Amino acid sequence: MRHLIPSWVRVPVIFFFIFGLTEYFIDSGDKPAFVEYPIVLGFLLLVLLIIIAIEAIISALENVMLQKLDDEAKARFLEDRNKTYQFMWLKNTYIKLLGQKPIEEEGEIILDHNYDGIKELDNNLPPWWLYAFYISIIFSVVYLLRYHVFNGPTQIDELETELAEARTAIEAYKKTAKDLVDVNTVTLLTDASDLSAGKTVFETNCVACHMADGGGGIGPNLTDTYWILGGGIKNVFKTISEGGRSGKGMIAWKQQLKPIEMAQVASYVLSFQGTTPANPKAPEGDIWEAETQE
């Protein structure tokens, strides 16, 4: 097969195959393994030099053999060799992987066991099975060293890392998906765009009871420090969402307004604090101290 694929293709392929295996088994974070562990680079270079040396030795021996042949024999040899590698290498590889004796040589491995004329052959284990077994041993040794000697990341570590990344992704998503806000996650909005949107919602739905300046009418005064159901963004959001006191309070707006709209109008309502309305209604409820807010 080496004559079908040139060495300048075979050598890099083998090298990068080994390189890929080392990268897979050695967790070096964002850096390549040979940067984090220089000994890995040394090992890879050593393997590359060995491969190149083997290629050079085989080529040199072949050239020496060809020099001993005359032109006709040399041409015949090269032609036969190419045909052999083109059509026989796959069959030969298959036979070698099976590791069985040819039929004419089976007499050498017949055991003395004889059951009703059925005889047993003492074939060796197939090379493909042995190679797979040896590879599994090598893998187990590498795994043992990587995860139990050099304390590589365990499945628990990987789970915690993935959970942390998931939490970060959720928080990032929440920043752009404001409609996910609820009474537990709502925060006071201070952006001019949010307050402007809250003002629009307030003027559309709330001025009839609270007046445009928040001084109060049917509903309570929103400019003082007294609150019937509690102040602060969470309490105001909950009151807007769930409604006021049963039977005589404000209706629940959660069916008419989106969560982000309730957060915006709640933030706008709190912007009335400390202002002076034209006709303020008398205080109702209890004083809400800022330090008591959650």
UniProtKB/TrEMBL annotation:
The keyword Transmembrane helix applies. It comes from Snuella sedimenti. One of its GO terms (molecular function) is heme binding. Residues 193-273 form the Cytochrome c domain. This is C-type cytochrome. The lineage of its organism: Bacteria, Pseudomonadati, Bacteroidota, Flavobacteriia, Flavobacteriales. Residues 156-183 form a coiled coil. Keywords: Coiled coil, Heme, Iron, Membrane, Metal-binding, Transmembrane, Transmembrane helix. The chain crosses the membrane at residues 7-26, 38-58, 128-145. It comes from the Bacteria.
